[in-house]
Amino acid sequence: MPNTKKKIVEVLNLKRLQKSLLSGKKEMRVPEDVKEGHFAVVAVDERFIVPLSFLTHPSFLRLLEQAAEEYGFHHRGALNLPCRPTELHRILAEETPSN
User: InterPro entries of this UniProt entry (predicted)?
Assistant: First the structure.
């Protein structure tokens, strides 16, 4: 049962992150290169602008789960992802999921 409870907590945390990204708090300053419908992430030292549609992409969701475990949710600015830029390039090159 501990693994089931851990998985439920992970899913709830991921849902909270998705909701936060989708709601887009207006009082926060967003860099000009981050257009509506996108968000910023960092892989090692490379910054990426990612469409919100990737919040349902299985490979990207796995990265978000790993980021939640490694870094938590309590930070501002671009999300740090625990992967190499080449891995993120590969994921972003995959077909964007339809809504």
Answer: SAUR_fam
Provide CB contacts within 8 A for 61, sequence distance 6+.
14, 55
Tokens found for residue 51: 């469409």
pTM of the shown model: 0.67
Tell me the residue type at 7.
K
The dihedrals phi and psi of 54, each to the nearest 5 degrees, come to: -75, -5
How buried is 29 (Cβ within 10 angstroms: 0-12 exposed, 13-18 middle, 19+ buried)? exposed
Q: In sequence order, what DSSP letters do the residues of 51-95 get, joined into one string? A: EGGGGG-HHHHHHHHHHHHHH-S---SSEEESS-HHHHHHHHHSP
Q: At what angle do helices 58-71 and 85-93 cross, to 10 degrees?
A: 150
